[in-house]
Predict the structure.
Amino acid sequence: MNHFRAEDWIDFVNLVAPQKQNETMKEHLSVSCQRCLETVALWQKVRNLATVEASYKLLEADVRIARTAFAPVVRVGPPKETGRFVELLFDSCVESTRGGVRSSGPGTRQVLYRAEPYQIDIQIEEKPEGNRLIVTGQLLDVSFPGIVGSDVKITLSNYRGNVIHTITNQLGEFRAEIENSGDLELSFPGQGDKAIVISLRNALGKSPGSKE
């Protein structure tokens, strides 16, 4: 059975998939493809989280977990000037540790951040062949509901000198591949052109020595 890509399901839940493809994807779900049903459910949850009000407060326990998981690591090159506080709203690695919450599966991680003026959805996947990561995401401009962050320059680094540059499309989406060093940094311009920097230590949320 062929499965659709993560970015196709993002379009599906955001109601922007082409009509013919949308119908095909509905038929695919109707045969109870568990893998794709879980993917749709996850991105639907991310979409719902994107509507959360700015006053939303995380539980203190979640904040402590996030601070530990996203501790800073050594950078390659000079430090960047960051202009905005980055808030973690959702992390599939954290959610999967709670009772009754299904994991997104080995080799995949979904995270959702808020960093004015954007909210950013990110999915990190381990490529089946080769030591590489596939990073997909979408920028939403929360200062203007319904507006996406199009034509935004995105920079990915693995902290080992491998840097990838890409740009968001008209739907605010981006996709890039990078060598998997275990760690990942994503940056893009915020208000006043000050960089918003998101650092992911253990990009896939694996414990040291894990072979999954």
Summary: The chain has five helices and ten strands.
